[in-house]
Design goal:
It contains eleven helices and twelve strands. By secondary structure, the chain is of the alpha+beta class. It has two domains: 186 residues, no CATH class; 177 residues, no CATH class.
Length: 394
């Protein structure tokens, strides 16, 4: 015979203060746990959305990132002449030979609250005439496209609001030249929102770079990637590694995502131990104060397993309430955009928290595990009570 669920709910309602404090502690742990997973998901999504499955990135073998790469003009011309490269409506190859460098810009306001404005690294990308066509997800939100051969640039929407001189109509100074921001690009919260774009042929001499950083190619057929990679990576005249653009940017997120996950989950585990101990103390106190009730239940014919189940249900309900509250608080973090340095590229990157069904499921599972661990030993103690002893204690 099972004990009704209403019995557990009534007992939790009776002990409002301890129920509130225990559920609140669990809610804080769940908030941290969910926020960490959401941060990692947001970082990955921001970088993965930067790439396209139809595009291919070619960089120098062993370089790891575009900033460390160097591809000479002859090699770039050889790569864009491959038959797997798509051709645009005007007969132009859909290819962009790009140069990527880091500059330091001061922020518009302090991130530390001390009033001191801290500079940060910003990615400047020199693109070719097809650079925008290769990224259909990138749109001009304000202003216009820079003119080829001019000292004009366009800035990502996230970067424009955070750095001095990056707004529409403002002037940036880098590479011993002054560059006018003539447009603001909207890249749909991808990594391009944290970049400055200009004409590669103007940026290369400004930074005294005789070579390109990467070559971006659009595939004529998505299934021809393996063929193109084999041809380019096995060509003795080249020393390049070739990846799909989405895979390239996914790899860029690995180092930082792993750091955030390990640090955040370590803190979550430490906090969860405290929450489990708190739930356990609450449930032990509940068992001690209800000795007579337990004896009466056993005398009425309820089995040990029913008593065990009733106290476990109380602990799980307690955890569930905390989990729902913690997850609700964490979901509000989706409204927050944060910026940090990408450990792979050493450039500033802005991204948002992202809550997915998988994260919600993992969070609630984590919550129920805490509730089970916190309630199991008290429930066992309640189930093992001797009927006579319990009734006498009452």
């Amino acid at each position: 015979m099972a004990i009704p669920l209403s019995y557990s709910l009534r007992n939790l309602a009776t002990r409002r203060l301890t129920t509130f404090l225990t559920a609140g502690a669990m809610a804080l742990v769940v908030f941290v746990f969910a926020a960490v997973l959401m941060m990692v998901a947001g970082l990955r999504q921001t970088l993965v959305d930067t790439g396209s499955e139809d595009n291919v990135v070619a960089i120098r073998k062993g370089s790891g990132t575009e900033m460390q790469s160097g591809i000479d003009r002859a090699s770039a011309a050889l790569m864009e002449s491959q038959p797997q490269v798509a051709i645009g409506p005007g007969g132009q190859l859909i290819c962009s030979k790009e140069t990527v460098v880091l500059i330091t810009l001061p922020k518009r306001r302090s991130d530390t609250g001390t009033g001191a404005v801290q500079p940060a690294n910003v990615t400047v990308r020199g693109i070719g005439s097809m650079g925008l066509a290769l990224r259909p997800q990138v749109k001009l939100a304000m202003g216009r496209m820079f003119r080829p051969g001019s000292y004009e640039v366009i800035a990502g929407s996230s970067l424009a609001t955070r750095f001095q001189g990056a707004g529409l109509g403002e002037t940036l100074r880098f590479g011993n030249r002054e560059w006018i921001v003539v447009g603001i690009l909207d890249a749909g919260k991808s990594g391009f929102d944290s970049e400055i774009w200009g004409d590669a042929d103007q940026l290369m001499p400004a930074f005294r770079r005789p070579v390109f950083s990467s070559v971006i190619l659009r595939l004529s057929d998505r299934n021809s990637f393996d063929t193109l990679r084999t041809v380019l990576e096995n060509d003795p005249r080249l020393s390049v590694e070739v990846k799909r653009e989405r895979q390239y940017y996914a790899d860029q997120s690995e180092l930082m995502a792993n750091f955030i996950r390990i640090l955040g989950l370590t803190l979550s585990i430490i906090f969860s131990i405290g929450a489990v101990i708190g739930a356990m103390i609450t449930m032990f106190a509940s068992v001690a104060s209800r000795t007579g009730e337990i004896g009466t239940l056993r005398a009425l014919g309820f089995r040990r397993s029913a008593v065990l189940g009733a106290f476990l249900v109380e602990s799980l309900i307690l955890a569930l309430v905390g989990g729902v509250v913690g997850l609700a608080l964490a979901s509000a973090m989706q409204l927050v955009t944060i910026s940090t340095m990408n450990f792979q590229s050493f450039a500033e990157l802005a991204f948002s928290f992202q809550l997915t069904p998988r994260i919600a499921f993992q969070t609630m599972l984590f919550t129920l595990v805490m509730g089970f661990l916190g309630g199991f030993l008290p429930a066992v103690r309640a189930a093992r009570m001797n009927i006579v002893t319990a009734l006498r204690a009452a």
